[in-house]
Design brief:
Layout (H helix, E strand, L loop, with lengths): L7 H4 L5 H14 L5 E2 L11 H12 L12 H15 L8 E4 L2 H12 L5 E6 L4 H8 L3 E6 L10 H7 L4 E7 L11 H13 L3 E5 L20 H6 E6 L12 E4 L2 H14 L5 H12 L3 H21 L15 E2 L10 E2 L2 E2 L3 H12 L1 E2 L1 E2 L9 E4 L4 H18 L7
Parallel strand pairs: 1-12, 3-4, 3-5, 5-6, 6-7
Antiparallel strand pairs: 2-8, 7-8, 9-14, 10-11, 13-14
Helix pairs in contact: 3-11, 4-11, 5-6, 5-10, 12-14
Bound molecules: pyridoxal-5'-phosphate (PLP).
Length: 406
Amino acid sequence: MMNSKLSQRAAKVEGSKTLELTMKARDMRKQGIDICIFGSGEPDFNTPEHICEAAFTAIKEGQTKYTPAGGIMELRKAISDKLREENGLNYSATQIVVSAGAKHSLSNIFFTVINPGEEVIIPVPAWLSYWEQVKLSGGVPKLIKTKPDNEFKLTPEELELAITPKTKMVLLTSPVNPTGSVYTRKELEKLAEVIVKHDLMVISDEIYEKLIYDGEEHVSIASLSQEIFDRTIVVNGFSKAYAMTGWRMGYAAASPEIAKAMFDIQSHLTSNPTTFVQIASIEALRGGQESVEKMRNEYDLRRKRIVEMLREIPGLECPMPKGAFYVFPSIEGLIGKKAYGVTIESDETLCQLLLEHAKILVVPGSSFEMENYVRLSYATDMVTIEEGVRRFKEFVIHHVEELIHT
Ligand code: PLP
């Protein structure tokens, strides 16, 4: 047999399971199968018209050439203003590096600050690209299982216990994908104390900051003190708030030293993110924000409806999320039971059965490193939500033995 031609680095990486599942479901739909998709975290709304118009105009005006690798100054200035006005963060425009999506910003960060063998603490459940990116950069992801009793949020005690001499940084997200949890100011203050005490760095992924409900407040950990500000790299992007997933636009804000290194690394790997998308992103930030609020209100209605319906399904426990556009119910009550002659041994088996028999796509919690949970994205229309969750309920009450209601 021929030896693998893959590098050790490539051999360690797994593809994105959420994207893979969503693509599979979309293929099934193309084949004419009626399927309700609760898969990837992608707004179903179109990008607001004024942002599209800005891109059209930019193309027509010939804004189709290279720009500085880390983005044009006008956009970096607009981001710097946004961070100051909305988040209380003082970054100059030169401390902002604009990239092709927050995913790209994150990989730039790991390549910029992680030495081989250094550990990155990641509370889980979490977005699955984090640990793959850490591995790719030569670092070691240190996954900390958080507890449902604390809404799956990392506690200062859990953080302390996870720190070793090799720990370089902590990765925090708020609101969290996949749980929808939101860290409070107090919780962040306590975590910041530990981070400063051990002289660690922190990445604060704030991509869902605009999607917050029930009057909760988004707080950037970087805003809490000068000491934590100096140790934080803030990551954000346009995909979720402005329904701009396909445009690929995100950014990081960091110390001058790190920002410059990220800029230089990006200059060799990808160069600038798409020029006319940068122009459209200025419009997203500086133009009217009504559409953001309109989408948030719609997500809020869907959130309440999907939770109400999921709570009617026997074997499930569904907390009310406070942010993002995901629900993360426990399916513990279905584990070990049989459906269609198959024992539901794990969340993955359940998701396969749901896809095959109920024709709904739900993502296994184990993809986010939390077994016996599933994630449903409610960034989809109300008709799909109602029909999909109705199918889930019907599957459980008519096909899961011991729970069958006659
Ligand atoms: N961070 C989190 C927590 C996410 O859930 C996602 C997308 O799902 C991203 C970052 C990446 O967003 P993008 O690369 O589209 O800006």
